[in-house]
Amino acid sequence: MKTTIKRSLFLIALILGVTTVFAQNRKLDNYRQPDKNGINVFEAPKDTVSTFEKVKVRIGGSSTLQFQAIDHENGVSQQNIDNGVVKELKGIGYNFNLATANLDLDVALAKGVRMHLRTYLSSRHHPEPYVKGGYFQIDNLDFIKEGLLSDIMKYTTIKVGHMENNYGDAHFRRTDNAQAMHNPFVGNLIMDAFTTEVGAELYYQRNGFIGMIGFSNGKLNQSVATGANDKTGGASFLAKLGYDNQFTEDFRFRLTGSVLTTGYVPSNYLYTADRAGSRYYFVMEDVDAGASSPFRSGRFDPGFRNRITAVMFNPFVKYQGLEFFGTVELAKGRAASEDNNGDGINDADDNRSTTQLAGEVIYRFGQTENFYVGGRYNTVSSEMTFDNDVDISRVQLSAGWFMTKNILAKVEYVSQSYDGYPETSILYDGKFDGLIVEAVISF
C-alpha cells in the first residue's frame, strides 16, 4: 500500500511539474478544445496558423462524478424466478458512482503534425489506468519537404493510429469516460456506436464540404495469434460525406452521412467497444452482477459479431441558442454462426436489421450560453435471433450550468422501457427511470 501511495504521489508531482513547464504552450493547431469551446465541434478544425516553433506538450484531462437515483423493474413472474428460469433484478439504491478520470497528452511534433493519446485513469470497467488509444495527425507535409503538396494539404488531413473511428457524428457528442463536457446529457445513445481500431483516415474539408474515407483492421483487441477461433485477417471500410456551414452569425447547418462496412472480421465491436461503461450503473442487471461487470447497463447490442454494414445520417441545426441534433442509423449484420432462415448456409440471407432513431433539442441561454435545457427521444428496433423483434425507447430531459468553461454541472431525468423480449429474459417488460446528477471538469 505504501509503495502504491508513493508511486501515485510521484506521478502527480511529475504531471504537475511537466504541466508547469509547458503551461505556456497549450495552444495547438487543428485541435478540438476539451472545454466548453469544443461544444458543437465535430472533426478537428482545419485552422493551421503556423504557430509551431518547437515541440509543444499539452497535458490535459477530465474528471466526473455522478449521484444516481434510479429505480428499475420488469414483468418477470415470481414463478419463473423461483424455478430458476430467470434471475431476479439486482437491488439498486441511491448513491454516488465511481469517480472517473482521463489523462490526455497532445503533442505538436512539427508544423501541422501532432499526436494525441488518451488514458482512462479510472473507469467503470477498468478502475486501473487503461490506454484508450491515440493517433498521429498530419495537416502539413513541410516536415518532409518545404511546400510539399501545400495546395492540397490546405484542405487535407491524415490520421493514423489505434484510434476512435469516425463513424457518424453522434460519437462527437457522446461521453468518453470522464470527458463529458461535450454531451448535454448524462447517458449516451441506447445503441452506442463507438470503437477504437488500428487504421487510417483521409479527410478533405473545403468551403463547408467534408469528405472522409478510412480503413481499419476491424479489431478492438490487437493480436497476431491464430487458431480455431482466431484470425489475423479482416478489415473495415468507413466513409463520411457532409456539409457544414455557418450561414450567418445566428444560423448554422450541418448534415452528414456515414457508412461502416466489414468483410469478415473475427469479432466486431462497433456497439460494444466502450470499455469505460454506461452511466446508468446496474440498471436491468441480475442479482449476481458484480462490482465491475457487466458494465454496459441500459445499452443495446444487436449481436452483429462478424459482419456488419451500418449507415448513419446526422442533421445538426443551430439558430441562436436553439439547436437540434438528430440520428438515423440503419444497420444489418450477423454472427458467423447464424442460420436465421434455416437453409443450413450462413450467408447474407441470414442478416438481421436494426434501426436507431434519436432526436435532441437543446436551448442554450445566458450571456455566454452558460446555461441550457434539453430533451432527447431515442428508440431502437431490432430483429433478434430468438425470432422476436424488440423495441427499446428512452426519454432524457436535461439541464446544465457551465460554472466556468472548464466546469459543468448537469442533471438528467431518464426513462427507458423494453418491449418484445420473451418471458425468459430479465428484460421482459423491463423499465428503469430516475434522476442522475453529474459534475464534470475538463481542461
Automatic annotation (TrEMBL):
Signal peptide: 1-23
Keywords linked to the UniProt accession: Signal
Protein name (record): Porin
Lineage: Bacteria, Pseudomonadati, Bacteroidota, Flavobacteriia, Flavobacteriales
Species, as recorded: Mangrovimonas yunxiaonensis
